[in-house]
Design goal:
The structure holds two protein chains of two kinds. Chain A has four domains: 1-29 and 36-47, no CATH class; 54-254, SGNH hydrolase (Rossmann fold, 3-Layer(aba) Sandwich), CATH 3.40.50; 261-405, Rossmann fold (3-Layer(aba) Sandwich); 416-616, Gcn5-related N-acetyltransferase (GNAT) (Aminopeptidase, 3-Layer(aba) Sandwich), CATH 3.40.630.30. Chain A is built from 25 helices and 17 strands. An eight-stranded mixed beta sheet of chain A has the order 15-16-14-13-12-11-10-17, with helices on both faces. In chain A, strands 2-1-3-4-5 form a five-stranded parallel beta sheet, sandwiched between helices. Chain A has a four-stranded parallel beta sheet with strand order 8-7-6-9. In chain A, helix 3 (34-45) crosses helix 4 and helix 7 crosses helix 8. Chain B is an all-alpha fold. The chains are: A alpha/beta, B mainly alpha. The A-B interface holds A 1, 33-35, 38-39, 42, 68-69, 225-227, 229-231, 233, 237 and B 17-18, 20, 40-41, 44-45, 48-49, 52, 58-60, 63-64.
């Protein structure tokens, strides 16, 4: 640590704050003990964060234990995920009062996240020894219903999302093993409480799995009674790093900064040996200890793909060699169809990964790169510090747990689009290739045979709608984030009109790819509050199609103009000129250099944009 | 046998680390009042850092009892030699 501090100071002096920041996070590790975490936090505090473009986030923690030490480390971990966090910490053990009192500091703080930070000691369910399953269920339900009331109060009074800890199973058991055999045993009661919390969770609330974290850390170490009795720390100080790390990942996911794409090396990463040298029969895959471990690693990667993580290959190989195992090896779990983009050449990997990000239209910070070769890892780290790169262990049997432990791919929802995302990106890639065979763009667009569905928001699509609002960074005109709860409110509000757009073409279904939230500001003015679109359908005429829908809707409802704003962020340069392109006029004076106001008059005659997308009436 | 002056030297290093001050010096009579940042929260950080550096465990009542650095040193010496 002393050495680290000296090196850190050197970097800050000679290179700069951004480099020092990257250096700190490359040397951080959730498993470091508390004093080491604290030293990293102190070093982090000496960095001037202004140059880092961290996103502000306000987090309120309502604890039933001491969290001050945790908060420091949490702030550090959140910075690693791209956030500049500000905290409100309620007085120890005042959870209910803080939530119920409309004048409490919680509400004037205007939090983005409210974390109800409880532990097993707060779950007081008085099940008598010998009580029946029904009796226990009733008591558990009653206890969870108490929580739900608190959640609802927060959701009604704030725009925050709520995190609720579940119960970490304590170490001691009065009845020993028997406690998990009967419904009234404390172990069973807490399990049932955790299950019921999850089952009864309402939109806007995410259960934080404290019990899982305590298990990962190890219960024997987790419970450190000294600091409970001395200063009301509910778990070992050395678990703080692990907890802060997992919570930061979850918050990144809630705020739309989760990782999206896994870029994989091939030789000695997906199989043992070098395909170009060892040949199809020589690589280690399927048989033997190592061969089996590679199969299991591939199975894990395939499951990630099935839940919506995009897979790409980046390998130094001849393309034909690289593809051979995918096509011919009987023990390959991953097939070419699973890979959205396959890059095998001899160029440097940083360049290749940049190209992969460009063709998928995703940011470098949403990429995870897995390579067994430390030289390649360091090269990519050097040139693309935004890319996440796990320090892969030497032994391939540990690849799976290494990738798993990093929790890169957190999520708080799952929709049908997730399941088929990889497929969509791959087809998109085919479309691009297909596009190269056409010289004129309208011929290409026509040949795509596109069909769009236009509908107002509905409950069924709510998870995807919320996801799109919170995940879209590039095609996002105002970058206003709405929670599921906010969207529900907007859907019920007569001053708003909402539309979602689905797009299909000859290569497949793109799913729900764009949405509009329109605010009826007056009888004359229809204002575009939110317009987001998935970048994978860019330049297909969807923007123009949506503009036509807007005009038709505006005229039909008797408005005289459509107004709109472009609010610049570090990521939405893409749509800077969108309104100009669509025929809007910019209001003369810009008060704020990052905000431009636009208006489109509905009183001029016909001005529909030409598109090659057929409007379909229903799903 | 752990020598008292060796413990003092090492403990001074821990203090310098925790309070982020390379010039910080400790004496037997030093108390929380002498170091601005030394509040009840930092006390916990300090105790844990001492445990890690010396490889010993300080129990709950001892955590609260540290009145001055001299007492701290005596306890560490006693633990290391027991």
């Amino acid at each position: 640590m002393k050495k680290l501090k000296i090196e850190f100071k050197e970097i800050i002096r000679e290179k700069g704050h951004k480099e020092a920041f990257d250096f700190l996070f490359q040397n951080s590790n959730p498993e470091l003990d508390y004093p080491e975490q604290y030293k990293l936090y102190k070093l982090f505090n000496s960095i001037s964060c202004e140059s880092l473009r961290l996103k502000k986030i306000k987090i309120a923690i309502l604890p039933s234990c001491t969290v001050d030490h945790f908060v420091d480390i949490f702030k550090f971990c959140l910075a690693g995920e791209g956030f500049d966090a500000e905290f409100f910490v309620a007085e120890f053990d005042t959870i209910d009062q803080t939530i119920l009192d409309p004048n409490s500091g919680l509400y004037s703080f205007e939090p983005d996240v409210v974390w109800i930070f409880t532990n097993y000691r707060d779950v007081k369910i008085p099940a008598d020894a010998g009580a029946s399953a029904e009796e226990v269920d009733l008591l558990v339900e009653e206890s969870v219903d108490g929580r739900i009331e608190l959640w609802k109060t927060i959701l009604n009074r704030t725009d925050a999302v709520v995190l609720q800890n579940n119960a970490d199973q304590p170490l001691e058991r009065v009845f020993g093993n028997f406690e998990s055999n009967v419904p009234w045993g404390n172990v069973s009661v807490l399990r049932s409480y955790n299950m019921t919390l999850a089952r009864k969770t309402i939109s806007g609330v995410t259960i934080f799995d404290l019990d899982y974290i305590s298990g990962v850390f190890g219960k024997v170490r987790w419970e450190d009674s000294r600091y409970w009795y001395h200063s009301k720390h509910a778990f070992s100080m050395d678990a703080i790093g692990l907890l802060a790390f997992h919570a930061s990942r979850l918050i990144a996911s809630i705020k739309g900064l989760a990782k999206k794409c896994l870029v994989l090396d091939l030789d000695n990463t997906l199989w043992g040996g070098v395909i170009g040298d060892d040949g199809l029969n020589g690589i280690k895959l399927g048989n033997g200890a190592i061969g089996e471990a590679f199969v299991d690693f591939q199975k894990y990667v395939k499951k990630l793909k099935d839940r919506g993580v995009i897979l790409a290959v980046c390998s130094k190989n001849e393309e034909a060699n690289a593809k051979l195992p995918f096509e011919k090896h009987p023990d390959m779990q991953l097939k070419l169809d699973d890979i959205a983009i396959f890059v095998a050449n001899w160029d440097n990997k940083a360049e290749n990964i940049k190209k992969i990000a460009d063709s998928l239209n995703i940011g470098l910070n949403s990429i995870v790169f897995v390579d067994d070769n430390p030289v390649e890892r360091n090269l990519v780290r050097e040139f693309l510090p935004e890319v996440s790169i796990p320090e892969l262990p030497e032994d391939p049997v540990d690849y799976k747990s290494c990738l798993g432990r990093h929790s890169y791919f957190e999520t708080i929802s799952f929709s049908n689009e997730d399941e088929s995302r990889n497929d969509m990106y791959r087809k998109n890639y085919e479309r691009k290739k297909f596009q190269q065979t056409f010289t004129d763009i309208s011929g290409y667009l026509k040949s795509l045979e596109m069909e769009a569905i236009v509908q107002p928001f509905d409950d069924f699509h709510l998870p995807r709608i919320t996801q799109l609002i919170n995940k879209s960074n590039q095609f996002n005109l105002t970058t206003i984030r709405y929670s599921e709860n906010d969207v529900l409110k907007i859907m019920k509000d007569n001053n708003f009109a909402t539309f979602y757009f689905k797009l299909k073409d000859r290569f497949g279904d793109n799913g729900l790819i764009s949405l509009l939230i329109l605010n009826k500001k007056s009888s004359e003015e229809l204002y575009i509050d939110t317009w987001v679109m998935s970048c994978r359908v860019l330049s297909r005429g969807m923007e123009e199609f949506i503009q036509n829908e807007l005009i038709a809707f505006g005229k039909q409802e008797g408005f005289s103009r459509i107004s709109a704003k472009y609010i610049a962020t570090s990521k939405n340069e893409l749509v800077k000129n969108l309104y100009h392109k669509l025929g809007f006029t910019m209001e003369k004076e810009m008060k704020d250099p990052f905000v431009s106001d636009w208006v489109y008059s509905l009183e001029n005659g016909e001005n529909e944009c030409k598109v090659f997308i057929k409007r379909m009436n229903n799903t | 046998m752990a020598e008292r002056n060796e413990v003092v030297k090492k403990l001074e290093g821990v203090f310098q680390d925790v309070f982020d001050d390379d010039d910080l010096q400790i004496q037997d009579s030093t108390t929380a009042d002498d170091i601005d940042e030394w509040d009840s929260l930092m006390h916990v950080t300090l105790v844990i850092s001492i445990e890690k550096s010396f490889g010993l465990t300080i129990n709950a009542s001892e955590v609260a009892e540290f009145e001055n650095v001299g007492g701290m040193i005596d306890l560490i010496v006693r633990k290391l030699n027991s």
